[in-house]
Each structure stands twice: as structure tokens, then as C-alpha cells.
């Protein structure tokens, strides 16, 4: 078994990037002075998901199943906010974050459906 839990270095890097994305977005949501309490709470939860991705990066094959929570969270956020943000009434920044969420959700699904192959 490799030091990456047999998932390969690429997946480990992918989950590090996902963690960094969530850490940055979460911190921004918590620390922006104009952010209401609800926004700060959401930022905290986004940051907490970053911790999950950080742990998965340490051994994707061992901890990878928890990525289903990430899929649900990211697809849910895109589904809830996407129509407004991409319908012309949203901000470009939020749209970019949602696009990132959609890409990570896709990557998470690819990992989840192919990880058995990564262990071979």
C-alpha cells in the first residue's frame, strides 16, 4: 500500500485543493465585516467541510466514503443558489464559487465511482 492509501497522488492533491477552496471561501464568509450572522455561520460550515476534505486527502481510500457528504452539500448549494446567481440577478463572485462547487462535486463523483479501480 502506498502512502496515499492506494488512491494515487493526483487524488490526494485534488482533495488538498478542495480543502483549500473551502478554507478560503469559509474564512471569507466568516470574516467579512458586512457579512450577516447567517453568512458567518454558513462560512463556518463551509470551512468545516474543508476539514473533511483535508482528512480525506491524507488517505483517500480510507476516508473517501465521507465525500458523499461533500457531493450532497455542493450539489445542494448549486441547486439552491444557482437559479438566482446564473439567472442574471446574482453576483459574478458567487457564480464563480458555485461553478467551483459544481466542478468539485463532479470530481468527487468521479472519485467515488472509480475509487475501486484506484485500489487495483
TrEMBL record:
Tagged with keyword Transmembrane: yes
UniProt keyword list: Membrane, Transmembrane, Transmembrane helix
Record field: transmembrane: 12-33, 39-56, 63-81, 93-114
Protein name: SPW repeat-containing protein
Species in which this protein is naturally found: Altererythrobacter litoralis
Lineage, top ranks: Bacteria, Pseudomonadati, Pseudomonadota, Alphaproteobacteria, Sphingomonadales
Amino acid at each position: 500500500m502506498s502512502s496515499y492509501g492506494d488512491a494515487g497522488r493526483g487524488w490526494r492533491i485534488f482533495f488538498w485543493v478542495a480543502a483549500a477552496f473551502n478554507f478560503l471561501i469559509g474564512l471569507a464568509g466568516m470574516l467579512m465585516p458586512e457579512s450577516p450572522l447567517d453568512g458567518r455561520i454558513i462560512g463556518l460550515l463551509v470551512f468545516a467541510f474543508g476539514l473533511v476534505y483535508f482528512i480525506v486527502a491524507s488517505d483517500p481510500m480510507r476516508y473517501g466514503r465521507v465525500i458523499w457528504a461533500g457531493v450532497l452539500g455542493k450539489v445542494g448549494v448549486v441547486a439552491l443558489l444557482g437559479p438566482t446567481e446564473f439567472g442574471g440577478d446574482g453576483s459574478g463572485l458567487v457564480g464563480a464559487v458555485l461553478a467551483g462547487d459544481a466542478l468539485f462535486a463532479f470530481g468527487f463523483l468521479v472519485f467515488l465511482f472509480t475509487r475501486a479501480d484506484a485500489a487495483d
